[in-house]
């Protein structure tokens, strides 16, 4: 197994810690600065939905490929302190991903030239190598105590083999599949994202769908709510005031938007809701 | 036209993207890190009001002059994907500003030693020079696809002429003027800012107003609401509990505050509301 | 008094400024970048409760020891513009802490190898040394006008004696003591922290308490509210759905949690509320 390493100047960091209390984000960044002072930290997001591994995995897989070769530290970890495994993944591009084995890291690795190797982190070896007391691992904050030190060491060029042992790639946890069903007449998908503008991202690649007309209908599955007429457009800037639009968002997903207002609010949507888009022209 | 450039170590970044979803901020920073790995990114704000070009332009013009010479990347861009132009401005200090031609950049350039040159970005040349596929421009995320790459190239010392063509400064869009009217007896201005402390910034320079007494009255224009007595003070720390104060804020604007509580909440204010301050002593 | 200094590559920054308006955080970071361009800024938090000096002091004392030697800039400053003193503290580890004399800095200094020296900042000397106009000090934003310039100078190796005069350590303001009372039968403490997960940190070190059984009762002091049964566990991942847990959090404090839900919401808690935990087994 090839595990040769060289210095990596960049650590990215994604979590569901939030920025409003607890000091969790700063604690991890401080640990990295102590172990690897010259390494830059690029914060991807700390506002991933609490414990929402799917959200975290999608945001990581989306942004990581835009970075240069990096160590990607990702901690959305509802199982901290239980039996879930701590991981390092190595990608075809030479990136490292560090975090819990709950599906969070795999899509990111696949988007970075492919998942080539997996290593099970050994906390004692991580902490010893980082010069930390071996007894200092908390039950509830492995970000600070295991993952951030491991990320810093990997950035310094320490090989994964020095802080972990090989793990079978096929035995890794995978994230839950999202809802997606496309027929010639309709598209059923899940709300996977709502941004600050109220734009609603769905679990469907635009290029996997056929929109034969620009006029469609949008409804919430399982709800006795009104059906919305919508127009397929290339950007929300083309929509009239109050008109609902369906478009290919900047990540290639099918998305819903209004022009200058919140589509999420108009349709009372939240993450995880199921949407059906009827593709036939309303006759 | 002088367009000589040297490396600039700092890119600042302002937007209305928010930090809570979409990965927009991180995507732009990742693009910059890929193209110009040694350049530091200083985040000005990503919580500018959604699509509020005036807010963004004021925050940029306020903070940019405190920075060393920099490339200022600013994206508040409700017209993305439509005909609005992508710009680079060059200032008297040698800074570069990158963003949409909707008024966002002009006040910042004027505060940085003056607006000296304008260039119209040519997306194909930007992307080619940055080593990006020329076909990859989305309709809705020019921050990632055009502006961030352009900012990174400018930081590397690439001249604006290599990625754009000259544009007439007098043809640039300007931001909407805010309400401001001062008479010997009253001041009428617009709420342009509410900070975390509930302090309320108005669209009036303190030095453009005359406060002949320390006792004034504050009212909302067009509202049948109570009039508030207020006192002109040098800092909110001088106010009694519950007493409304008028003061010169740290940016030189007229502002309203309470001591240890929110003036915005007391007066039910939001951005854009019009305030009148009666300057005469209540007799 | 020993005041020898060398360059320090890292400035940390904590405040209650928030990120949503005012440009306060960015203004301070811009000032630092102007004076000390090579110094890295690590943001600890800017979401400390408004004017909550105790919160700020605890978050600083918690995270600062995880950093390498640094200048710690901390601004939670409800008394800005009044008589409160501007300070530099020097620690046993060689760190510097910069901020107002209101108790904010002292616990941090004590956690960094001990509080060794205190210096009273002289604003005129700070600004002159930083190349800033001496008349430019606002009444309401000493973060930008005094503290950030001082932090940048200290990072450059300027000795505290060059910008301030010695101050008696025993005369420093101290933060308010939090509620803590432990008897063999009960523990009374204050809510000092609520994180994004709804976990509730109390003003009690876990190791200062004796939990003779794993079954305890939790109640709010002075409220006619139901008493909650809770279980002492090592991590929230061990709790059943809906079961309240008491545990040693990752900072060594006694804390309350649910598994996958918010304990703060369940108990309607906010910062400052007093909690009693009855330690005896419910018979």
Can you give a write-up of this model?
- Three copies of one chain form a homotrimer.
- With about 280 residues, the first copy, chain A, is of the alpha+beta class.
- Chain A has six helices and 15 strands.
- A seven-stranded mixed beta sheet of chain A has the order 2-1-3-5-4-6-7.
- The longest helix of chain A has 14 residues, at about 140-155.
- Chain A starts with 9 loop residues before the first strand and ends in a 5-residue tail after the last strand.
In terms of topology, how is this protein built?
Three copies of one chain form a homotrimer.
Chain A: E1 10-15, H1 24-35, E2 40-45, H2 53-63, E3 71-75, E4 86-91, E5 96-100, H3 106-111, E6 115-121, H4 123-129, H5 142-155, E7 164-167, E8 180-182, E9 186-194, E10 200-205, E11 215-220, E12 228-232, E13 244-248, E14 253-257, H6 263-266, E15 274-278
Parallel strand pairs in A: 1-2, 1-3, 3-5, 12-13
Antiparallel strand pairs in A: 4-5, 4-6, 6-7, 8-9, 9-10, 9-15, 10-14, 11-12, 11-15, 13-14
Helix pairs in contact in A: 1-5, 4-5
């Amino acid at each position: 197994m090839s595990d040769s390493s060289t210095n990596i100047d960049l650590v990215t960091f994604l979590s569901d810690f939030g920025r409003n209390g607890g000091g969790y984000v700063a604690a991890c960044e401080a640990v990295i600065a102590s172990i690897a002072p010259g390494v830059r930290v690029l914060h991807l997001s700390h506002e991933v939905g609490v414990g929402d591994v799917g959200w975290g995995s999608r945001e990581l897989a989306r942004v990581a490929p835009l970075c240069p070769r990096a160590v990607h530290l990702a901690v959305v970890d509802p199982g901290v302190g239980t039996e879930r495994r701590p991981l390092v993944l190595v990608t075809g591009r030479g990136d490292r991903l560090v975090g819990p084995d709950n599906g969070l890291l795999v899509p990111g690795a696949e988007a970075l030239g492919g998942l080539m190797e997996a290593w099970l982190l050994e906390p004692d070896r991580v902490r010893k190598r980082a010069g930390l007391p071996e007894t200092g691992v908390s039950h509830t904050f492995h970000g600070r105590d295991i993952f951030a030190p491991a990320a810093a060491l990997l950035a310094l060029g320490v090989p994964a083999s020095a802080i972990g042992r090989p793990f079978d790639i096929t035995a890794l946890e995978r994230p839950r599949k999202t809802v997606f069903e496309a027929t010639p007449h309709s598209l059923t998908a899940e709300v996977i994202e709502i941004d600050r503008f109220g734009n609603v991202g769905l679990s469907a690649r635009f290029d996997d769908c056929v929109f034969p007309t620009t006029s469609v209908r949008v409804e919430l599955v399982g709800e006795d709510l009104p059906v919305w007429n919508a127009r397929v457009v290339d950007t929300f800037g083309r929509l009239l005031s109050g008109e609902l639009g369906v478009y290919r968002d900047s990540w290639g997903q099918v998305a819903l938007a209004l022009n200058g207002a919140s589509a999420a609010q108009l349709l009372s949507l939240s993450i995880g809701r199921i949407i059906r888009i009827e593709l036939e022209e309303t006759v």
